[in-house]
Amino acid sequence: MIYVHVPFCRRKCNYCAFNSKVAGSAEKNFYVDALIKEIELRGTSEPVETIYIGGGTPTTLTLDELARIVDALGKNFLVDKSAEITIEANPGTVDENYLRGLKTLGVNRLSLGVQTFDDALLKMLGRIHDARSAIETVTTAEKFFDNISVDLMYGLPAQKLEHLRRDVEQLKNLNVQHVSIYGLEVEEGTIFFELARARKLPLPDDDACADMYDFITATLPTLGYRRYEVSNFAKKNFESRHNRGYWTGKKYFGFGAGAHGFDGNLRVSNVRDVATYIERINAGLNVSTVEEVVNRRAAMEEFCFLGLRLVEGIDARTFEKNFGVKIFDVFGAVIERNRRLGLLTVNGDKIFLTERGMSLGNEVFADFLL
Ligand code: SF4
Question: Quick one: 314 and 206 in the same domain?
Fold first, then answer.
């Protein structure tokens, strides 16, 4: 698995704490050069089944720049012929020509940051697009891609259940295969954080957010989207292979400023600042630092709290095969406590979250930290 980070956006959204910034074409070009050097330095003959180009907004790069990145990956890794190759794109940054170009590059999955189809909410979020351009982008993308994901958000300031009802109505008219739904988190360093501090951000309360989440999780399945993870829904056979890899503990490379990687033992992250990243790469210096050594105990914890994000949950036999010890001997008390609280179900070797457990996922996951 390979993740490539493109830390550029047309404009910074009001809620965004991701590693992204507005940049000119020269800086982007230098960045792509550095990215390619990093890819060349770390290439291996390991087979790669998924590539995810995320950001930021990768589609703020030119098609030529993206082609150079994809080409470098192909030359320095053994990319499987049937690899899932996803790119994140934002409405307002791609037109028909660009989408056709992405397809030509071998991209076969598009993840579109729509967030909502409500113009007033989009404006308040500071997004560069309106509902009409989001719809146009999706319908144009459908000409080239049969695997499209749309991101939606809930818990937005001034958002009501009615807004989400209209978002879902709009989804019905589109033909996307995958939907991710994220609750807004107000993070430090964002405009929303300052507004919240000044008590000028009309956030819905916890109950209203829970109602929105419940509405989404109840409604999307009626449109043919099966929930397969806490925040992700897909039509049959359209689950994200790349993200499933994260939740099942697969190794992955991370390229670019602030990108994370995991080699099965170490979790590493690259320097976050774009200028520093470029400088260090060009000077032949290391850009990554070890964030965590995943020892046996941490690996057992991760197996549980990442695997429980998936609707199918975790398998007691796989745990025993991986760690040589029974899951109930290590986490028996935690499993039993959450089962009694109605948050977990144990069915033979399968352990998975209940509906209630899904909506209180973070509490359950925290419980698995030994
Ligand atoms: S488009 Fe995405 S990454 Fe870029 S500023 Fe907005 S939320 Fe952040």
Answer: no
Total domains in the chain come to 2
- pTM for this prediction: 0.96
For residues 64 and 70, give the distance between their C-alpha atoms in angstroms, rounded to a whole number. Answer: 10
Q: Which of 61, 90, 190 to mutate to test the pocket of ligand 1 (most atoms within 8 A of CB)?
A: 90
Residue found under tokens 């990319």: 79
CA angle 256, 2, 292 (to 5 degrees): 70
Residues 198 and 124 in one domain: yes
Last residue of a domain, one of 247, 266, 282: 247
The answer to whether residues 183 and 323 belong to one domain is no
Pocket of ligand 1 (CB under 6 A): 9, 12-13, 16, 18, 20, 55-57, 90, 113
Atom of ligand 1 nearest to the CA of 55: 3
Q: Residue 311: which domain range?
A: 296-367
Per residue in 294-353, pLDDT tens? Answer: 999 999 999 999 999 999 999 999 999 999 999 999 999 999 999 999 999 999 999 999
CA-nearest residue, atom 8 of ligand 1: 16
CA distance 268 to 254: 9
